[in-house]
Amino acid sequence: MEKKIKILAIESSCDETSAAVVVNGKDVLSNVIASQIDTHKKFGGVVPEVASRMHIEVVGAVAKEAIDKANITFEDIDAVGVTYGPGLVGALLVGLQYAKALAFALDKPLIGVNHIEGHISSNFIQHKDLEPPFVCLVVSGGHTFVVYMKDYGKFEVMGQTRDDAAGEAYDKIARALGLGYPGGPKIDKLAKEGNQHAIKFPRANFHDDASLDFSFSGLKSAVLNYLNSMEMKGEEVNKADVAASFQKAVVEFLVDNAMRACKIKKVNKIAVAGGVASNSCLRNTLINRGRENDIEVLFPEPILCTDNAAMIGSAAYFEFLKGRVSSMELNAVPNLKLGQR
């Protein structure tokens, strides 16, 4: 009988404090998330210092709740997994120091996890039969990658953003339209009322035609220039049309590159991860393009698209199997690269 490896995972890279208990990388016994959205909403975005203080206030209680909901004790866990980058350095340090203290007190292995690898691993929880190799599109507020997953823990970055992440662009355009924070869900909702062909916004072109990189700063500037132009002319802005046209430009860029990656690597499976994976336009467009190209498209459920500890527990398990454990000297690495150890 396969031994059940229980990982207690901690995630605190941005503005969610989360703890989860995950068995063998795929079965979630608990996944507790304390969100700070209501606090940061009034500032129009995440304030790092505020996020760090709020993590300090709740991390212990969140971990205890995760243990209780899993119906186990702290002594029952086999290892402690924790995000150590990338992310906000102060926020990362809170979760990391708590995890290190817990692992030391319980005499359990400590496993540092790359936050982006965690997002990718969320698909192993949702789709338990999923195995590498496959292409993964990682799209969130801070990250945009096209990744080829060769094997568990082995990644090849095929493309990444050269400036803003897709989710960051969503937030900035939502702010310009007066929609508030977080911008992604608000633009996605408003876009359903608009005409995506109303305004033709540009897409970045690189000199290297083979590049699978992204750039959203030019698109963002084009939308802002359009809004300023309409204001100067005294013309009314159809916000729904702007939202729909902007979203179309973003989504088509993401989908085109993901499909090209599958063709290059000769795989017929795309897994999507990150907060923007919940976007209805992205989901529908990818699924339709996948059908046209005989490519299976997989998404985690929305709770696994957000920053959460279950995905960290999944990634930690595969690190644990490879014997990759961390020392108590593990430090936060805010700019940690995918695949970097």
Keywords:
single chain, 341 residues, alpha/beta, Nucleotidyltransferase, domain 5, five-stranded mixed sheet
Q: How many helices does DSSP assign?
A: 11
CATH H-level superfamily title of the largest domain: ATPase, nucleotide binding domain
Instruction: Determine Rg (CA atoms, Å).
Output: 20 Å
What top-tier CATH class of the largest domain fits best?
A: Alpha Beta
CATH architecture of the largest domain: 2-Layer Sandwich
Helix and strand composition category: alpha/beta
Mean pLDDT: 93
CATH topology of the largest domain: Nucleotidyltransferase, domain 5
Taken as a percent bin, the fraction of beta residues is 15-25%
The topology string of helices and strands comes to EEEHHEHEHEEEHHHHEHEHH
CA-to-CA gap between the ends? 32 Å
- Poorly predicted segments: none
Could you characterize the architecture of this molecule?
The chain has two domains: 132 residues, ATPase, nucleotide binding domain (Nucleotidyltransferase, domain 5); 174 residues, Nucleotidyltransferase, domain 5 (2-Layer Sandwich). Helix content is 44%, strand content 19%. It has eleven helices and ten strands. Helix 9 links the parallel strand 9 and strand 10. It is globular. The model has no long low-confidence stretch (mean pLDDT 93).
